[in-house]
Amino acid sequence: MSDALSGARRRGLDPLKTALWAIAGLLALLWSGLAWASAAVVRWTVDALSTGQAAELGKTAVAFKFPAWLEPFLDTGLLSAIQDLVRWVLELAGQGAPLAGAAVGWLVPVVWGVWGVGLLTLLGIAALLHLALRSLPRIGMPAAN
Q1: How far apart are CA 131 and CA 124, in angstroms?
Q2: Mind listing the pLDDT tens digit for each residue in 101-125?
Q3: 41, 114, 126, 136 from 28: Cα distances, Å
Q4: Are 12 and 100 in contact (CB under 8 A)?
Q5: Which tens digits make up the pLDDT trace of 78-102?
Q6: Under DSSP, is residue 15 helix (H, G, I), strand (E, B) or coil?
Q7: Nearest CA to 49 among 97, 114, 109?
Q8: CB 49: neighbour CB atoms within 10 A?
Q9: Mind listing the pLDDT tens digit for each residue in 40-88?
Q10: pTM of the full predicted structure?
C-alpha cells in the first residue's frame, strides 16, 4: 500500500467512500434537474391546455407531412397512427381544459413531493452503502477478531 493512500486513510479519507458520495451527489443533481424540468413541463402543459395553445399545436403536429425524400426511410403507417393518437389525446385534453387551471395548483407540488421522496431514498441508500463500506475490513490491515 502506498504511503499517500495509507496517510489518506489515517486522516479518514477513504477513496471508496469519497467515490460513493461523489456519485450520490451527481445522481442527486441529475434527479433535481429532472424534477425541475418536469415541473416546468407540467406548468407549460397546463398553461397551454387552459389557453387553447395545445389544440393549435396539435393541429400543426397532425397536419405535418414529412418531405417526400424522407418517406422511404420512415414507416408511414406508424407515423399516421402516432398522428391519430395525438389528435385523440388533444381532443380529450380539450374537453378537460377548464380543469387544467386548477390542476397546476396540485400537480407541481406533487412533482416536488416525488422529488423529495426520491432524494431521501437516494441519500438513504448512499448512507447504507457508506455504513457497509465502513464495516469492510481494510486491505493490508489485520482483521479484528
Answers
A1: 11
A2: 677 778 889 999 999 999 999 999 9
A3: 20, 13, 11, 26
A4: no
A5: 888 888 887 787 777 766 666 766 7
A6: helix
A7: 97
A8: 22
A9: 988 888 777 777 776 677 777 777 777 788 778 877 788 888 888 877 8
A10: 0.63
Residues 109-121, buried b or exposed e (16+ Cβ, 10 A)? eebeeebeebeee
Q: What single-letter amino acid sits at 35?
A: A
How far is CA 32 from each of CA 77, 108, 126, 130, rounded to the nearest angstrom?
38, 14, 16, 22
Are the C-beta atoms of residues 42 and 101 closer than 8 Å to each other? no
Neighbours of 58 (CB within 10 A): 20
Q: Are 56 and 49 in contact (CB under 8 A)?
A: no
Helix (H, G, I), strand (E, B) or coil at 36: helix
Packed helices 97-135 and 15-51: angle between N→C axes, nearest 10 degrees = 180
Cell numbers at 30, concatenated: 441529475
Backbone torsion region of residue 52, taken as left when φ is above 0, otherwise alpha when ψ lies between -120 and 50, otherwise beta:
left
| Residue type, position 81, single letter | A
